[in-house]
Design brief:
With 266 residues, the protein is α/β, with parallel strands linked by helices. The protein is 35% helix and 24% strand. It is built from eight helices and ten strands. It has a five-stranded parallel sheet. A five-stranded mixed barrel has the order 6-7-8-10-9. Helix 6 runs parallel beside helix 7 (136-149). 32% of the residues are buried.
């Protein structure tokens, strides 16, 4: 932990204002070093760094999200109400073939528990369609799950067989045409969910971390607490005073554009 804290302090001294914690499974950080998860303790220590503003969590496996972690997220202002949870699927039979625990009921309950513990949290996930043996019923269950939970951020991938992996030799491989059709259906549904969410943000004021100036659009852009670097949307706005990357500004949302927001800086 001391190595991470030293690196974090060095980054913040160099002007960094947001730290993103990511691992193969961020929620089990410390298991190999201390014999137990130390993510809540790590977050608590990181929050003591004076000029650090935002801490973001990516890649948290659902089975390792504890009440202790959620308590820290709710308590510490610097830990953003944002969590990336790679669920992969919601149908129990598909998850079992993926060697993952859970089913639609348990995952829905988890999302409800997270949202109850951390108000206004932004939930991101990724799902995979076309895994060997995925039936139409499995796919429909995934779609219904997505409609019910309404993740603010979601990406979908079609299964791609990789040599030397167990899934490569599984029976009942899905045809590419079917996989891509299912992927498109999921992303079409998520587009509707995202559009509704973005529309709900119009007329609201959000805090934006300034990233850069877009010379083609002739405006600045940045990210809200609900937008991770590179994978989520952005907020485009005209500056009313001199600003620079790394600044935090208040922007009133006036419109939406695909996955992004458009606004006016206060």
């Amino acid at each position: 932990m001391e190595n991470i804290l030293a690196e974090a302090n060095k980054l913040v001294l160099g002007g960094v204002r947001e730290l993103v914690l990511v691992a193969q499974d961020t929620t089990v950080y410390g298991q190999d070093l201390y014999g137990e998860s130390r993510l809540p303790q790590l977050l608590t220590e990181l929050c003591k760094i004076e000029d650090l503003k935002w801490i973001r969590l990516l890649y948290c496996y659902p089975e390792h999200i504890t009440d202790e972690l959620l308590t820290v997220m709710a308590r510490e202002e610097k830990v953003l109400p944002y969590m990336d949870i790679p669920l992969q699927h919601a149908a129990g039979p598909v998850l079992k073939r993926m060697n993952r625990p859970g089913n639609r009921a348990t995952l829905t309950a988890l999302m409800e528990r997270i949202r109850a513990a951390v108000p206004d949290i932004t939930l991101r996930t990724t799902v995979m369609v076309g895994f060997p043996g995925e039936t139409e019923e499995d796919f429909e269950e995934l779609c219904e799950f997505i409609k019910d939970v309404k993740f603010q951020r979601l990406g979908c991938f079609a299964f791609s067989p990789e040599e030397d992996t167990p899934a490569y030799n599984l029976p009942d491989q899905i045809e590419d045409e079917v996989k891509y059709r299912r992927r498109d259906i999921v992303m079409e549904e998520q587009s509707r969910i995202s559009d509704a969410y973005n529309e709900s943000m119009v007329d609201k004021t959000v805090t934006v971390l300034v990233e850069s100036f877009d010379k083609y659009a002739e405006c600045w852009f940045g990210r809200t607490a609900g937008d991770a670097p590179d994978i989520d949307g952005k907020v485009f706005f005209a500056a009313t005073r001199r600003i620079q990357p790394g600044d935090f500004v208040e922007v009133t949302v006036t419109d939406t554009m695909d996955w992004d927001l458009i606004g006016e800086m206060i």
